[in-house]
Amino acid sequence: MRSTVILSTYNQPRWLELVLTGFLVQTRHPDQVIVADDGSGADTRSVITAMQQQAPFQLDHVWHEDQGFRKTRILNAALAKAEGDYVIFTDGDCIPTPTFVERHLQLAAPHRFLSGGYVKLPMAVCEHITVEPVRLRQATSPTWLRAHGMPAVSALLKLQRSLAVGRCLDALTTTRPTWNGHNASTWRNVLWAANGFDERMVYGGEDRELGERLENAGIRGRQVRYRIGCVHLDHSRGYVSPEGIAANNAIREETRRSGRTTTTHSSLAGNLPHEPTV
Fold first, then answer.
1. Does the domain spanning 3-258 belong to CATH 3.90.550.10?
2. 82-106: per-residue pLDDT in tens?
3. Taking the CB of residue 135, how many other CB atoms lie within 10 A of it?
4. Which of 64, 83, 141, 250, CA to CA, is 20 to 30 A from 199?
C-alpha cells in the first residue's frame, strides 16, 4: 500500500525543517510527502529544496499566492496530487513520533478514518528543539521533553511508545474521534468521494467538518490518540476571528443537520475520478 503525507504550512520555515526532519527518521517512510503551502515566502521554498536533496521519499511542494487564510484550498490542491492509496494529514508545526507513519498504515481499516493525538509544547520548550534531537528521535520523547522544561502533564501519555498501553488508553478515553488536521488519515478515494475540504471554511474547526461528512457517509472515526502522536510547536495565530469561527460553526451545523457527505464548495468537485470508497 502506497502512502502520502500531506502537511500544511505558512511562513514557519524553522518549524517546517524540524517536521520534515521527523519524516526522514520514521521507522517506515511514506512514499510521498506533499507540503501544502498557503502562500509562504522564499525561506520556506529553500527549506523544501534542501530537504528534497536528502529525502528517501518523493517530496512535493504545492503553493498558491498569499491571499489570507486559505488552508482548505491548498489542502485540496495537495490532495489532487496525492499518489498514495492512503493519505495521512498533519501540519508543518507538528513533529511526528518515529512510528507515526508506520502506525497509521498498521491501524488503517476499511470504512474508517484514524483520529490521532498531539501534545502542545510551550514556546520555552520549543526553543530547545533543533534538528539534532529530531534526527536522534529525542524531540518527541517524554523523557527528553521533561528534561528540557516540559511540565509533567497527562498529555505526555500520547507520546508513550507501547502499542498495547496506547490501545488500553484509547479504549478508556471519553474523547470522541474527530478529523484532526494535525494527525488524521484515511483512504485517498474516500477523500476524493467527499470532494475534500469545504473551501468556505476559515480557521476554527475547518478540519473537523470533513470528518463530519465522512461520518455521514459511514466512514467512522477510530480513536488512536494514544497510539499515534506528535508534538505541536508553538506560534501566534493572527488569522483567528470570532466572525470566522461563527461562520464555520454554521457550516458544520448544516453538515450535521443535512447529513451531507460531499461538498460543492471545493476546487476538487468534478475534477477527480470518484473511485468506490474503502
1. yes
2. 999 999 999 999 999 999 999 999 9
3. 14
4. 83
